[in-house]
Design a protein that fits this description.
The chain is an alpha+beta fold. It has helices at about 50-75, 80-110, and strands at about 1-10, 15-20, 35-45. A three-stranded mixed beta sheet has the order 2-1-3, with no helix packed on it.
């Protein structure tokens, strides 16, 4: 049961920080026993990397939707661009769903 720092992000996710202290079970320098306990928790005002990626993809998706609505108002001049934008939205939706599933899996999993 070695002690580590714990970083808590604004979105609620967390990650293990630096190693701080050995427990009584581990005597070798540079080795840990495998059990992690929190020595100090630090709040971080930023979102985790997964949430930042989700936000970025949501912004890209919103930009594509805005482009499609602008192109549709101008008529049938941009049909190929509209089709390509719909394909981009489809792939962005799949990537967003994958990232949200990954985030949910991490929140359920203990000790990651």
């Amino acid at each position: 049961m070695c002690f580590f720092d714990n970083h808590i992000f604004a979105c609620g996710d967390w990650k293990w920080g630096h190693f701080r202290q050995h427990c009584n079970k581990e005597y070798r320098t540079g080795e840990t026993c495998g059990m992690k306990l929190v020595m100090m928790s630090y709040r971080i005002n930023n979102k985790c990397k997964t949430c930042e990626k989700i936000d970025t993809k949501l912004r890209r998706r919103a930009a594509e939707v805005e482009r499609i609505s602008r192109w549709e108002q101008e008529g049938s001049r941009f049909m190929a661009s509209i089709d390509r934008a719909y394909d981009n939205i489809k792939t962005l939706d799949a990537e967003i769903l994958e990232l949200q599933n990954e985030r949910q899996k991490r929140s359920v999993q203990f000790g990651s």
